[in-house]
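Per your request, structure below.
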Protein backbone atom coordinates (compact mmCIF):
# COMPACT_ATOMS: atom_id res chain seq x y z
CA UNK A 1 0.00 0.00 0.00
CA UNK A 2 1.31 3.44 -0.98
CA UNK A 3 0.66 6.17 1.56
CA UNK A 4 1.41 9.89 1.15
CA UNK A 5 1.65 12.11 4.23
CA UNK A 6 1.92 15.90 4.02
CA UNK A 7 3.79 17.46 6.97
CA UNK A 8 7.06 16.43 8.67
CA UNK A 9 6.69 17.83 12.17
CA UNK A 10 5.16 15.62 14.89
CA UNK A 11 2.11 13.70 13.60
CA UNK A 12 3.68 13.09 10.15
CA UNK A 13 6.87 11.30 11.27
CA UNK A 14 5.06 9.30 14.00
CA UNK A 15 2.48 8.08 11.47
CA UNK A 16 5.23 7.38 8.91
CA UNK A 17 7.20 5.37 11.48
CA UNK A 18 4.29 3.09 12.35
CA UNK A 19 3.02 2.65 8.79
CA UNK A 20 6.51 1.74 7.59
CA UNK A 21 6.82 -0.69 10.50
CA UNK A 22 3.54 -2.31 9.39
CA UNK A 23 4.93 -2.73 5.86
CA UNK A 24 3.48 0.23 3.94
CA UNK A 25 5.36 2.18 1.28
CA UNK A 26 5.42 5.68 2.83
CA UNK A 27 6.26 9.08 1.33
CA UNK A 28 6.27 12.30 3.37
CA UNK A 29 6.12 15.67 1.60
CA UNK A 30 7.09 18.82 3.55
CA UNK A 31 7.05 22.37 2.23
CA UNK A 32 10.00 23.53 4.37
CA UNK A 33 13.46 23.00 2.85
CA UNK A 34 14.54 20.83 5.80
CA UNK A 35 13.28 19.73 9.16
CA UNK A 36 12.49 22.96 11.00
CA UNK A 37 15.23 23.51 13.57
CA UNK A 38 14.41 26.95 14.92
CA UNK A 39 11.46 28.81 16.34
CA UNK A 40 10.00 25.92 18.27
CA UNK A 41 8.60 26.07 21.74
CA UNK A 42 8.34 23.74 24.72
CA UNK A 43 5.55 21.19 24.42
CA UNK A 44 4.08 18.66 26.83
CA UNK A 45 4.12 14.95 26.16
CA UNK A 46 1.55 13.32 28.41
CA UNK A 47 1.18 9.62 29.23
CA UNK A 48 -0.24 8.20 25.95
CA UNK A 49 2.33 10.07 23.85
CA UNK A 50 5.14 9.01 26.20
CA UNK A 51 4.01 5.39 25.87
CA UNK A 52 3.81 5.60 22.06
CA UNK A 53 7.35 7.01 22.08
CA UNK A 54 8.44 4.15 24.35
CA UNK A 55 6.97 1.62 21.90
CA UNK A 56 8.96 3.36 19.14
CA UNK A 57 12.14 2.92 21.20
CA UNK A 58 12.85 6.68 21.27
CA UNK A 59 11.92 7.53 24.86
CA UNK A 60 15.56 7.65 26.10
CA UNK A 61 16.42 10.27 23.43
CA UNK A 62 13.32 12.28 24.33
CA UNK A 63 14.11 12.19 28.05
CA UNK A 64 17.70 13.20 27.31
CA UNK A 65 16.42 16.30 25.44
CA UNK A 66 13.85 17.31 28.10
CA UNK A 67 13.92 21.03 28.86
CA UNK A 68 14.71 20.42 32.52
CA UNK A 69 12.63 23.37 33.73
CA UNK A 70 12.35 22.82 37.49
CA UNK A 71 11.05 26.13 38.81
CA UNK A 72 8.60 28.81 37.71
CA UNK A 73 9.22 32.28 39.16
CA UNK A 74 5.84 34.00 38.89
CA UNK A 75 5.87 37.81 39.03
CA UNK A 76 2.69 39.80 39.66
CA UNK A 77 2.49 43.61 39.48
CA UNK A 78 1.21 43.99 43.04
CA UNK A 79 3.76 41.68 44.69
CA UNK A 80 7.28 42.83 45.59
CA UNK A 81 8.75 39.36 45.10
CA UNK A 82 7.93 36.57 42.64
CA UNK A 83 6.20 33.41 43.82
CA UNK A 84 8.44 30.34 43.52
CA UNK A 85 6.50 27.41 42.03
CA UNK A 86 7.84 23.85 41.81
CA UNK A 87 7.36 23.26 38.07
CA UNK A 88 8.39 19.59 38.14
CA UNK A 89 5.84 18.87 40.83
CA UNK A 90 3.22 20.74 38.83
CA UNK A 91 3.93 18.48 35.84
CA UNK A 92 3.89 15.33 37.99
CA UNK A 93 0.56 16.44 39.43
CA UNK A 94 -0.89 16.72 35.91
CA UNK A 95 0.46 13.43 34.58
CA UNK A 96 2.09 10.26 35.87
CA UNK A 97 4.29 10.17 32.78
CA UNK A 98 5.18 13.57 31.39
CA UNK A 99 8.12 15.04 29.47
CA UNK A 100 8.55 18.67 28.43
CA UNK A 101 10.66 18.99 25.29
CA UNK A 102 11.16 21.53 22.50
CA UNK A 103 8.97 20.79 19.49
CA UNK A 104 11.93 20.88 17.07
CA UNK A 105 13.87 18.36 19.17
CA UNK A 106 10.88 16.05 19.31
CA UNK A 107 10.32 16.35 15.58
CA UNK A 108 13.94 15.39 14.91
CA UNK A 109 13.76 12.36 17.21
CA UNK A 110 10.67 11.03 15.37
CA UNK A 111 12.14 11.85 11.95
CA UNK A 112 15.41 10.08 12.77
CA UNK A 113 13.47 7.01 13.91
CA UNK A 114 11.88 6.53 10.47
CA UNK A 115 13.97 8.36 7.86
CA UNK A 116 15.71 5.17 6.61
CA UNK A 117 12.37 3.49 5.89
CA UNK A 118 10.43 6.47 4.53
CA UNK A 119 10.84 8.65 1.43
CA UNK A 120 11.01 12.24 2.77
CA UNK A 121 10.62 14.96 0.12
CA UNK A 122 11.31 18.51 1.30
CA UNK A 123 10.53 21.79 -0.52
CA UNK A 124 7.32 20.46 -2.04
CA UNK A 125 3.58 20.36 -1.35
CA UNK A 126 0.38 18.83 -2.63
CA UNK A 127 -1.66 21.04 -4.99
CA UNK A 128 -4.44 18.61 -5.95
CA UNK A 129 -5.83 15.20 -4.90
CA UNK A 130 -8.09 13.33 -7.36
CA UNK A 131 -10.73 10.83 -6.14
CA UNK A 132 -8.62 7.88 -7.37
CA UNK A 133 -5.67 9.06 -5.22
CA UNK A 134 -3.69 10.73 -8.02
CA UNK A 135 -1.78 13.59 -6.40
CA UNK A 136 -0.42 16.69 -8.12
CA UNK A 137 2.58 18.37 -6.48
CA UNK A 138 4.00 21.87 -6.77
CA UNK A 139 7.36 20.39 -7.82
CA UNK A 140 7.37 16.61 -8.33
CA UNK A 141 5.46 14.85 -11.12
CA UNK A 142 1.93 13.45 -10.49
CA UNK A 143 1.78 10.14 -8.65
CA UNK A 144 -0.99 7.84 -7.45
CA UNK A 145 -1.33 6.83 -3.78
CA UNK A 146 -3.79 4.50 -2.05
CA UNK A 147 -4.16 6.85 0.91
CA UNK A 148 -3.29 10.52 1.48
CA UNK A 149 -2.96 11.95 5.02
CA UNK A 150 -2.81 15.62 5.98
CA UNK A 151 -0.41 15.99 8.93
CA UNK A 152 0.20 19.58 7.98
CA UNK A 153 -0.92 21.46 11.05
CA UNK A 154 -3.63 23.88 12.10
CA UNK A 155 -3.71 25.67 8.73
CA UNK A 156 -3.61 22.38 6.78
CA UNK A 157 -3.36 22.53 2.99
CA UNK A 158 -4.77 18.99 2.61
CA UNK A 159 -7.80 19.98 4.69
CA UNK A 160 -8.33 23.04 2.50
CA UNK A 161 -8.15 20.92 -0.69
CA UNK A 162 -10.55 18.25 0.53
CA UNK A 163 -12.91 20.04 2.94
CA UNK A 164 -12.63 23.67 1.76
CA UNK A 165 -12.87 26.45 4.34
CA UNK A 166 -13.44 24.94 7.79
CA UNK A 167 -14.24 27.62 10.38
CA UNK A 168 -11.82 27.83 13.29
CA UNK A 169 -13.24 28.73 16.70
CA UNK A 170 -11.34 31.69 18.17
CA UNK A 171 -10.63 31.03 21.87
CA UNK A 172 -10.04 34.71 22.60
CA UNK A 173 -6.24 34.78 22.82
CA UNK A 174 -3.10 35.31 20.77
CA UNK A 175 0.16 33.47 21.07
CA UNK A 176 3.63 34.62 20.12
CA UNK A 177 7.07 33.02 20.44
CA UNK A 178 10.28 35.01 20.01
CA UNK A 179 13.80 33.62 20.00
CA UNK A 180 15.92 35.74 22.38
CA UNK A 181 19.56 35.51 23.58
CA UNK A 182 20.19 32.74 26.07
CA UNK A 183 21.59 35.27 28.57
CA UNK A 184 18.04 36.61 29.07
CA UNK A 185 16.94 33.35 30.73
CA UNK A 186 18.19 31.02 33.47
CA UNK A 187 18.66 27.31 32.76
CA UNK A 188 16.23 25.22 34.80
CA UNK A 189 13.97 28.19 35.53
CA UNK A 190 11.00 29.71 33.76
CA UNK A 191 10.45 33.38 34.52
CA UNK A 192 6.86 34.54 34.10
CA UNK A 193 4.95 37.82 34.39
CA UNK A 194 1.26 37.29 35.15
CA UNK A 195 -1.27 40.09 34.78
CA UNK A 196 -4.97 40.08 33.91
CA UNK A 197 -5.30 39.20 30.19
CA UNK A 198 -1.54 38.96 29.54
CA UNK A 199 1.21 36.49 30.43
CA UNK A 200 4.84 36.62 29.27
CA UNK A 201 7.43 33.94 30.03
CA UNK A 202 11.01 33.13 29.14
CA UNK A 203 12.89 29.82 29.40
CA UNK A 204 15.82 27.95 27.94
CA UNK A 205 17.42 24.52 28.24
CA UNK A 206 21.00 23.31 28.63
CA UNK A 207 21.36 22.19 25.02
CA UNK A 208 19.70 25.26 23.43
CA UNK A 209 21.77 28.08 21.96
CA UNK A 210 19.02 30.62 22.62
CA UNK A 211 16.03 31.17 24.91
CA UNK A 212 12.36 31.46 23.95
CA UNK A 213 10.06 34.22 25.12
CA UNK A 214 6.39 33.23 24.97
CA UNK A 215 3.60 35.79 25.06
CA UNK A 216 -0.10 35.00 25.45
CA UNK A 217 -2.66 37.80 25.61
CA UNK A 218 -6.38 38.34 25.32
CA UNK A 219 -7.38 41.73 23.86
CA UNK A 220 -10.87 43.18 24.41
CA UNK A 221 -11.78 42.55 20.77
CA UNK A 222 -10.23 40.34 18.07
CA UNK A 223 -7.28 41.82 16.16
CA UNK A 224 -7.84 42.29 12.46
CA UNK A 225 -4.50 41.28 10.93
CA UNK A 226 -3.03 39.49 7.93
CA UNK A 227 -1.00 36.39 8.87
CA UNK A 228 1.76 37.56 6.47
CA UNK A 229 1.97 41.07 7.95
CA UNK A 230 4.74 40.35 10.45
CA UNK A 231 5.54 44.02 11.18
CA UNK A 232 1.93 44.66 12.16
CA UNK A 233 1.96 41.58 14.42
CA UNK A 234 5.07 42.87 16.17
CA UNK A 235 3.35 46.21 16.77
CA UNK A 236 0.33 44.42 18.27
CA UNK A 237 2.63 42.40 20.52
CA UNK A 238 4.56 45.46 21.73
CA UNK A 239 1.32 47.31 22.45
CA UNK A 240 -0.18 44.34 24.30
CA UNK A 241 2.83 44.03 26.65
CA UNK A 242 3.73 47.69 27.08
CA UNK A 243 4.57 48.59 30.67
CA UNK A 244 4.69 45.08 32.16
CA UNK A 245 8.32 45.27 33.36
CA UNK A 246 11.79 46.25 32.21
CA UNK A 247 12.66 42.54 31.87
CA UNK A 248 9.77 42.00 29.46
CA UNK A 249 10.85 45.18 27.62
CA UNK A 250 14.23 43.48 27.01
CA UNK A 251 12.51 40.44 25.50
CA UNK A 252 10.39 42.71 23.31
CA UNK A 253 13.47 44.66 22.20
CA UNK A 254 14.67 41.44 20.54
CA UNK A 255 11.77 41.78 18.07
CA UNK A 256 14.11 44.04 16.07
CA UNK A 257 16.74 41.31 15.77
CA UNK A 258 15.14 37.91 16.24
CA UNK A 259 15.56 35.42 13.39
CA UNK A 260 12.43 33.57 14.44
CA UNK A 261 9.07 35.02 15.27
CA UNK A 262 5.75 33.21 15.59
CA UNK A 263 2.38 34.90 16.02
CA UNK A 264 -1.07 33.35 15.70
CA UNK A 265 -4.57 33.43 17.12
CA UNK A 266 -5.41 30.60 19.53
CA UNK A 267 -8.09 28.80 17.56
CA UNK A 268 -9.79 25.44 17.79
CA UNK A 269 -10.97 23.17 14.99
CA UNK A 270 -14.42 21.65 15.37
CA UNK A 271 -14.78 19.12 12.54
CA UNK A 272 -17.30 16.34 13.20
CA UNK A 273 -15.43 14.05 10.79
CA UNK A 274 -11.99 14.44 9.25
CA UNK A 275 -11.87 11.69 6.60
CA UNK A 276 -13.22 11.71 3.05
CA UNK A 277 -12.59 9.07 0.38
CA UNK A 278 -8.89 8.13 0.42
CA UNK A 279 -7.94 11.15 2.51
CA UNK A 280 -7.80 11.62 6.25
CA UNK A 281 -6.23 14.11 8.66
CA UNK A 282 -4.07 13.58 11.72
CA UNK A 283 -2.90 15.88 14.54
CA UNK A 284 -3.55 19.62 14.43
CA UNK A 285 -4.74 19.37 10.80
CA UNK A 286 -7.82 17.42 11.87
CA UNK A 287 -8.50 18.18 15.52
CA UNK A 288 -6.32 20.93 16.98
CA UNK A 289 -7.91 21.83 20.32
CA UNK A 290 -5.90 25.08 20.36
CA UNK A 291 -2.13 25.62 20.43
CA UNK A 292 -0.58 25.83 23.92
CA UNK A 293 -3.87 25.28 25.75
CA UNK A 294 -5.13 21.77 24.96
CA UNK A 295 -2.25 19.27 24.89
CA UNK A 296 -2.40 19.12 21.10
CA UNK A 297 1.04 17.53 20.66
CA UNK A 298 0.06 14.52 22.75
CA UNK A 299 -3.17 14.27 20.75
CA UNK A 300 -1.16 14.39 17.51
CA UNK A 301 1.16 11.54 18.62
CA UNK A 302 -1.77 9.51 19.95
CA UNK A 303 -3.81 10.05 16.77
CA UNK A 304 -0.92 9.07 14.50
CA UNK A 305 -0.39 5.84 16.45
CA UNK A 306 -4.10 4.97 16.36
CA UNK A 307 -4.48 5.75 12.63
CA UNK A 308 -1.52 3.54 11.69
CA UNK A 309 -2.72 0.77 13.99
CA UNK A 310 -6.24 0.83 12.56
CA UNK A 311 -4.86 0.73 9.01
CA UNK A 312 -2.85 -2.34 9.94
CA UNK A 313 -5.82 -3.94 11.69
CA UNK A 314 -8.03 -3.34 8.61
CA UNK A 315 -5.28 -4.80 6.37
CA UNK A 316 -5.23 -1.66 4.23
CA UNK A 317 -9.03 -1.22 3.91
CA UNK A 318 -8.87 2.53 4.39
CA UNK A 319 -12.65 3.10 4.69
CA UNK A 320 -12.87 0.70 7.66
CA UNK A 321 -9.64 2.03 9.17
CA UNK A 322 -10.70 5.70 8.94
CA UNK A 323 -14.09 4.94 10.53
CA UNK A 324 -12.56 3.14 13.54
CA UNK A 325 -9.76 5.72 13.83
CA UNK A 326 -12.35 8.50 14.14
CA UNK A 327 -14.49 6.46 16.54
CA UNK A 328 -11.54 5.80 18.87
CA UNK A 329 -10.31 9.39 18.70
CA UNK A 330 -13.65 11.20 19.10
CA UNK A 331 -13.96 11.07 22.94
CA UNK A 332 -10.36 12.30 23.35
CA UNK A 333 -10.83 15.01 20.72
CA UNK A 334 -14.03 16.26 22.40
CA UNK A 335 -12.39 16.13 25.83
CA UNK A 336 -9.33 18.07 24.70
CA UNK A 337 -11.52 20.74 23.06
CA UNK A 338 -13.34 21.26 26.34
CA UNK A 339 -10.07 21.34 28.27
CA UNK A 340 -8.58 23.88 25.85
CA UNK A 341 -11.61 26.19 26.14
CA UNK A 342 -11.24 26.15 29.93
CA UNK A 343 -7.44 26.55 29.83
CA UNK A 344 -7.68 29.52 27.46
CA UNK A 345 -9.15 31.52 30.32
CA UNK A 346 -7.39 29.94 33.33
CA UNK A 347 -3.84 30.13 31.91
CA UNK A 348 -4.36 33.82 31.12
CA UNK A 349 -6.89 34.97 33.74
CA UNK A 350 -9.07 37.96 32.99
CA UNK A 351 -8.89 39.51 36.48
CA UNK A 352 -6.56 40.07 39.42
CA UNK A 353 -8.58 37.51 41.33
CA UNK A 354 -7.92 34.96 38.56
CA UNK A 355 -4.17 35.65 38.62
CA UNK A 356 -4.15 35.27 42.42
CA UNK A 357 -6.02 31.96 42.13
CA UNK A 358 -3.69 30.61 39.42
CA UNK A 359 -0.51 31.47 41.30
CA UNK A 360 -2.14 30.30 44.56
CA UNK A 361 -2.76 26.85 43.05
CA UNK A 362 0.88 26.72 41.94
CA UNK A 363 2.03 27.62 45.46
CA UNK A 364 -0.27 25.04 47.05
CA UNK A 365 1.13 22.34 44.76
CA UNK A 366 4.64 23.42 45.75
CA UNK A 367 4.05 23.00 49.48
CA UNK A 368 1.69 20.01 49.58
CA UNK A 369 3.05 16.43 49.35
CA UNK A 370 3.00 15.06 45.78
CA UNK A 371 0.73 12.18 46.81
CA UNK A 372 -1.88 14.73 47.96
CA UNK A 373 -1.68 16.94 44.85
CA UNK A 374 -1.90 13.87 42.60
CA UNK A 375 -4.86 12.49 44.52
CA UNK A 376 -6.70 15.82 44.16
CA UNK A 377 -5.82 16.05 40.46
CA UNK A 378 -7.08 12.50 39.86
CA UNK A 379 -10.54 13.71 40.88
CA UNK A 380 -10.48 15.76 37.69
CA UNK A 381 -10.11 13.08 35.00
CA UNK A 382 -11.78 15.25 32.38
CA UNK A 383 -9.64 18.27 33.13
CA UNK A 384 -6.09 18.40 34.29
CA UNK A 385 -5.65 14.57 34.13
CA UNK A 386 -7.52 14.10 30.84
CA UNK A 387 -4.54 12.85 28.87
CA UNK A 388 -3.54 10.25 31.43
CA UNK A 389 -6.96 8.62 31.05
CA UNK A 390 -6.79 8.18 27.26
CA UNK A 391 -6.70 4.45 26.47
CA UNK A 392 -3.83 3.30 24.27
CA UNK A 393 -4.93 0.42 21.99
CA UNK A 394 -2.69 -2.59 21.42
CA UNK A 395 -1.93 -3.53 17.80
CA UNK A 396 -0.30 -6.52 16.16
CA UNK A 397 3.10 -5.06 15.29
CA UNK A 398 4.06 -7.75 12.76
CA UNK A 399 5.35 -6.28 9.49
CA UNK A 400 3.18 -6.06 6.37
CA UNK A 401 -0.06 -5.96 8.34
CA UNK A 402 -1.11 -2.91 6.36
CA UNK A 403 -0.26 -4.21 2.87
CA UNK A 404 -3.42 -4.69 0.84
CA UNK A 405 -3.41 -7.50 -1.75
CA UNK A 406 -2.36 -6.29 -5.20
CA UNK A 407 -0.91 -3.05 -3.89
CA UNK A 408 2.74 -2.16 -4.17
CA UNK A 409 4.59 -2.61 -0.90
C1 LIG B 1 3.58 28.78 20.11
C2 LIG B 1 3.03 27.42 20.30
C3 LIG B 1 3.07 26.85 21.58
C4 LIG B 1 2.58 25.56 21.76
N1 LIG B 1 2.65 25.00 23.00
C5 LIG B 1 2.22 23.73 23.17
C6 LIG B 1 2.29 23.09 24.44
O1 LIG B 1 2.73 23.66 25.42
N2 LIG B 1 1.84 21.81 24.54
C7 LIG B 1 1.37 21.14 23.46
O2 LIG B 1 1.01 19.96 23.58
N3 LIG B 1 1.30 21.71 22.25
C8 LIG B 1 1.70 22.99 22.08
N4 LIG B 1 1.61 23.57 20.87
C9 LIG B 1 1.02 22.85 19.76
C10 LIG B 1 1.99 21.93 19.05
O3 LIG B 1 3.05 22.63 18.48
C11 LIG B 1 1.21 21.20 17.98
O4 LIG B 1 0.05 20.62 18.54
C12 LIG B 1 1.99 20.09 17.35
O5 LIG B 1 3.18 20.58 16.81
C13 LIG B 1 1.12 19.45 16.27
O6 LIG B 1 1.87 18.69 15.43
P1 LIG B 1 1.41 18.43 13.93
O7 LIG B 1 2.45 17.52 13.37
O8 LIG B 1 -0.01 18.02 13.90
O9 LIG B 1 1.44 19.86 13.20
P2 LIG B 1 2.60 20.95 13.09
O10 LIG B 1 3.60 20.79 14.15
O11 LIG B 1 1.92 22.25 12.92
O12 LIG B 1 3.34 20.56 11.72
C14 LIG B 1 2.80 20.73 10.45
C15 LIG B 1 3.89 20.47 9.42
O13 LIG B 1 3.32 20.54 8.13
C16 LIG B 1 4.09 21.41 7.31
N5 LIG B 1 3.15 22.03 6.37
C17 LIG B 1 2.16 22.89 6.67
N6 LIG B 1 1.49 23.22 5.54
C18 LIG B 1 2.07 22.53 4.52
C19 LIG B 1 1.82 22.45 3.13
N7 LIG B 1 0.84 23.16 2.55
N8 LIG B 1 2.61 21.66 2.38
C20 LIG B 1 3.61 20.92 2.94
N9 LIG B 1 3.90 20.95 4.27
C21 LIG B 1 3.14 21.75 5.06
C22 LIG B 1 4.70 22.41 8.27
O14 LIG B 1 5.87 23.01 7.73
C23 LIG B 1 5.01 21.52 9.47
O15 LIG B 1 6.26 20.89 9.32
C24 LIG B 1 2.05 24.85 20.66
C25 LIG B 1 2.01 25.42 19.40
C26 LIG B 1 2.49 26.69 19.22
C27 LIG B 1 2.45 27.28 17.82
Amino acid sequence: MKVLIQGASIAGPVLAYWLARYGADVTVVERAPALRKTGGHAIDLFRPAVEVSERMGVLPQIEHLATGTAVLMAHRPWAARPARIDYLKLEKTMSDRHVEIMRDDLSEVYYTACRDDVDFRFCDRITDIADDGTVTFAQAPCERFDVVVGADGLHSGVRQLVFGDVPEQFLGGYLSVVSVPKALAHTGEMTGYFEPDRVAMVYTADHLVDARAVFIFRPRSPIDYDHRAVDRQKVELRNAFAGVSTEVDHWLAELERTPTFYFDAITQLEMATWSRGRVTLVGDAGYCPGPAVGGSTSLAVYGAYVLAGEMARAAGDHATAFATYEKIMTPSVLGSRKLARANATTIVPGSRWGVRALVGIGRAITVLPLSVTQAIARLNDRGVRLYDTMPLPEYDESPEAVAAPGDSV
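The pocket of flavin-adenine dinucleotide is lined by residues 6-12, 29-32, 36, 41, 43-44, 103, 125, 151-153, 157, 175, 177, 262, 283-285, 291-292, 295-298, 300 (CB under 6 Å).

Regards,
D.
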